[in-house]
Design goal:
By secondary structure, this protein is of the alpha/beta class. It has twelve helices and twelve strands. The chain has a seven-stranded parallel β-sheet with strand order 3-2-1-4-5-6-10, sandwiched between helices. Helix 1 links the parallel strand 1 and strand 2. It is globular. The termini are far apart. It catalyses: dTDP-alpha-D-glucose = dTDP-4-dehydro-6-deoxy-alpha-D-glucose + H2O.
Length: about 350
């Protein structure tokens, strides 16, 4: 098939594009705006490794002039393009770009599919987050998010993703769009921009700095290796039922304090490297996904998400690939300074 992947130069998109080119015969067009968190270096060389099967188009998912012809050429669309950093969405004036990209970008794709002959029959995999569900209580391991959990987003980021989900669901109900929605838990692994907690902490520890731990550190996340997530998206593309939602989790719940301790241990460091900081506004206490549906219906299960092995492999990757992430971190720092000035 001819596949259109939006946001294919981001963290999850990079892994998905590599998987598609490595393990399928599909051709991939990657539409990416290449913002601060998207980088051409993360897919350097894949075009040469897979001649005629990969093309990068620099553009924004909100730009109808760019999106419509790409959708017309595609047999299916995997929609990953999104603003995703919660702290950025909370910052003063930060929410607007989340609404523009996550909500309006999704609607632009839906408009393109509806306007293209045969577009409603084309599979759309809309990639979302478990954060649309809000949070769960601590100390109740039997309670997890499922596809039936009501939406209760806590941040502008998760609210914008919830809105985009609902637009896709409406397109299914009203127009018969052949679409599936996925909700994933927290991803980790190679090629993640170092503003997210795991690569951020690794970078700080490599620089001899302290790591910031929000609040009491008891907040819990379900950690999913990015390659396991990419394989789930491929399963949904190929075998998912139209109109269905699939939740994707790593069955790997860890508190932020436990994560921090494991990273410190990986560097042979102690708790003196922890900097206690005020909690994030509206900070969700616990995320946990019951992935029984995708396991049962599509035969997917996580292969690489188990800790400590997978976390230690991730630490090793960032230590060995400093030449990739450090220029990105410096570029983001310069952009942040420019915005403040």
């Amino acid at each position: 098939m001819n596949l259109l992947v939006t946001g294919g130069s981001g963290f999850i998109g990079t892994t998905l594009v590599r998987l598609l080119l490595r393990e399928t015969g599909h051709r991939v067009v990657n539409l990416d705006k290449l913002t601060y968190s998207g980088d051409t270096g993360s897919l350097a060389g894949v075009g040469g490794e897979h001649p005629g099967r990969y093309r990068l188009v620099r553009g924004c998912v909100t730009d109808a002039a760019a999106v419509f012809p790409l959708v017309a050429e595609a047999d299916a669309v995997l929609h990953l393009a999104a603003e995703s950093h919660v702290d950025r969405s909370i910052a003063t004036g930060g929410a607007r770009v989340f609404v523009e990209t996550n909500v309006m970008g999704t609607q632009t794709l839906l408009d393109a599919l509806r306007s293209t002959p045969g577009g409603l029959a084309k599979r759309l995999v809309h990639v979302s987050t478990d954060e649309v569900y809000g949070d769960l209580p601590l100390g109740e391991p039997g309670v997890r998010f499922t596809e039936e959990t009501p939406y209760a987003p806590s941040s502008p980021y998760s609210a914008s993703k919830a809105a985009s989900d609902l637009l896709v669901r409406a397109a299914v109900r009203t127009h018969g769009q052949n679409a599936c929605v996925t909700h994933c838990s927290n991803n980790f692994g190679p090629w993640q921009f170092p503003e997210k907690v795991i690569p951020l902490f690794i970078a700080r520890l490599m620089d001899g700095r302290r790591v910031p731990l929000y609040g009491d550190g008891r907040n819990v996340r379900d950690w999913l290796h990015v390659e396991d997530h990419a394989r789930a998206l491929l399963a949904v593309l190929e075998r998912g039922r139209a109109g269905e939602t699939y939740d994707v989790g790593g069955d790997n719940e860890r508190s932020n304090a436990e994560l921090t301790a494991m990273l410190l241990d990986a560097f042979g460091l102690g708790e003196d490297r922890i900097e206690r900081v005020a909690d994030r506004p509206g900070h969700d206490r616990r995320y946990a996904i019951d992935a029984a549906k995708i396991r049962r219906e599509l035969g997917w299960a996580p292969r690489r998400s188990a800790w400590p092995e997978a976390l230690l492999e991730t630490v090793a990757w960032y230590r060995e690939n400093e030449a990739w992430w450090r220029p990105l971190l410096e570029k983001a720092g310069r952009a942040q300074t420019k915005r403040r000035n």
